[in-house]
Amino acid sequence: MEENLMSTFPRITEDENTRIGDRYTSDVIARLRTPEGRDEWIYCHSHILMKNSKYFADRLSETWPTCQILDSRNCVEVHCQEHDFDHHITVLRLFYVTITCSVTDICHNVKNALGILQVAVNLGSPEIVATCVDFLEASPWEEAEEEEILKIIPGIGLLAEPVLARLQPVNPAGIVKLFLSATLFATSALPLSMADLKTSAQEQIEYMLTEDDDAPLITSDEDIKSKVKQHFKGLLTRFNNVVNSCETSDSQMNQFQCFLVDISWACQILTKLEILKDFVENWVNVSENIVKAVDQISQQGEMLETKVKVIEVTSKVLEAIAYGNVILPTIKRLHMVKIWLPFVRILKPLFDSLTTDENECLVVKMDVEIWQSLESAFSSIILALPAGQQAEILSEWLENKHIRYPDLTEVFEVWCYRSKVANRRLAHIKGNKGIIKML
To answer: Which InterPro entries does this chain map to (predicted)?
Structure first.
């Protein structure tokens, strides 16, 4: 049985002679019945019930169809379910209370408040309904309670609408304002003591932009994109300063590693917003210094974690270049291949050999799909270079001991085919001297 709520708060009765359950002064019985056969008689007073409940006021009215039947006005049946039986008793007792005590004392907790609220609505008691609504509207909810509220409250009507205020969709302008404020905070130069707050803000920004079972909270337009780009500009500038002046001191290395986390996050956000161009160009420009900075990290555990983060970002950058999402001139695309191809070629076998400890447990996790994505991106970028540059890259690949990764077999096959049929396919394209220009 539910806790007897009336024992938890003071009672002030309308009249010392009108107490619920007083058989000698009562003039009506509220008969509570359940489908399971539970049947309980509560001795009450008609003037109390009629004052506080429309249901009882109607049933005890002279106009009720059965009012002339013998004893019909002396016993009013209330049909309820077993799970809300005790809440009916609580509401009947509350009819005898002048509600001047604490709302918390009356409702006690969210579960009880919901039970009392439903009964109060069914019995037509607006004062108790208002009390329960006030309690629910102001109380914290656990996830299960929130789901229960969403099931119950919408069916109650306008009286309970304030309870749903915290769950209502926010005005789009308010969402954009919060998103931009969070983005500014998450890309700002903050002290180390605020790292957790920044991380939390970054996670929520990513969540706002993610399409899962629900649509993203933010639908970016050009104005939003422009403001976001400005916010990230400062982050990229600070990252560049650290990379370009990276020394071997522990503090510099730690700062570089912290920035990498922010940059990795920035890459994801800018990808979702489809404004990755500035980021990609920046990564291309500082790639050589990034590789130098990473090479200065001597501790094995830190080295692997840092290189993994670098690879994750580089993979996104190379994908954007490879698939035409960001258009770069030939010289920059070739630069990216020359910088990052040797880096991943050496890292892959090193990572495979060092990512497990003595118990064969992973020390540093790296998604296999990233390696596959890198291999595919390199192939696409190389195949988009001039044929002569492709030949140089392939020659170096075939002579290198790390030939297994990335595997450029497909690039080699395409290059051979294109080269063999080039004269025939391009016969109609003549140079000034009537011959195809050799690349």
So the answer is: At3g05675-like, SKP1/BTB/POZ_sf
